[in-house]
Amino acid sequence: MPTAKRACAASLLVAASLLSFRVAAVDLRPPSSFDAIADRAERSRSIFAEAGKVIQSPRCLNCHPVGDRPTQGRDMHPHNPPVFRGADDRGAVGMRCTTCHQSANFDASGVPGNPSWHLAPALMAWQHETLGEICAQIKDSRRNGGRTLAQIQEHMAHDVLVGWGWHPGGMREPAPGTQESFGELIAAWIATGAECPV
Amino acid sequence: MSITLNVNAQNHDVDADPNAPLLWVIRDDLGLTGTKYGCGIAQCGACTVHVDGEPVRSCSAPVSAMAGRKVTTIEGVSSRAAKAVQKAWVDLDVVQCGYCQSGQIMSATALLEKVPKPTDEDIDRAMAGNICRCATYQRIRAAIHAASAELTA
Questions:
Q1: DSSP readout, B128-147?
Q2: A42-76, pLDDT tens digit by residue?
Q3: For B5, phi and psi rounded to 5 degrees?
Q4: Number of structural domains, chain B?
Q5: What SS3 state is found at B153?
Q6: End-to-end Cα, chain B, rounded Å
Q7: Do residues B97 and B45 both lie within one domain?
Q8: Which of residues 92-121 of A touch B (CB under 8 A)?
Q9: What is the pLDDT of residues A18-36, one digit of tens each?
Q10: Residue B41 belongs to domain spanning
Q11: Are B53 and B86 found together in one domain?
């Protein structure tokens, strides 16, 4: 095969393999699609289960680890280099999150970034928890940063680092839906009594 | 795009793509080649510099983000901790091939400036992102303890 054709074929193979790693974004059902559920508590639980598609996506779970080390990737493997949360959830002394993660995703190196890059506090560990257990934690002011439900909704709908989950850059799969649609689900869950899945 | 960079306490006006990695501006535009290219994806630590006193992988930092900040490279690092680290590196003959060592020294210095008497765990956590293919890790840790002893004597 001529060199130019070989190069072209190789490029197509690389492009195809890269595309195969990118999973199509998943949509979220709007709160109105749960209106047919007559029982209010059951409707609330169903709405939270829909929001759980975001909460339990690797994009969110990776930074809600059990213990002191984040994970990364769709398979949630241990973060490499091996980093630790440190005293302020922003890395160990001398190996801060900002040692590698800047204020925006950086295409030249592929390293993701955000102005508020950090781990969720250890009390907010979501990995290995059921959706019901995560729900209970989110509602528990002793484990949610002292937030009211209204503040939880504000955090989910508008926090800039939460929002990164839908704009992860590179070939990373974004969280399902949009931050706006996720925020609408959380608002509807609260409005229907903030019931937790069993 | 014209950017004013403060590197090693000197201002430099450089004409660079705002998305250019700081590493290449340091090396190619300023001629400061002590900072090394290792992997280009923040996995090895060879390109570590200090930005406002904190270690940063210069391969993964856009030069546009450095405006108004103080960048220090291996050529300019000169604090008491840095001098103690450099002396310990020589005394213990830490270096083998040497390629990663400017990054190692920048990370070790950043640690000692915050924690003058680090434990093994402090050292391991701070240095975890600095790879040494010659595997001089034991000497690196010993040299950081030696530098610490000099700093805290």
A1: TT---TT--HHHHHHHHHHH
A2: 999 999 999 999 999 999 999 999 999 999 999 99
A3: -110, 135
A4: 2
A5: coil
A6: 48
A7: no
A8: 92-96, 98-104, 106-111
A9: 444 445 568 999 999 999 9
A10: 2-72
A11: no
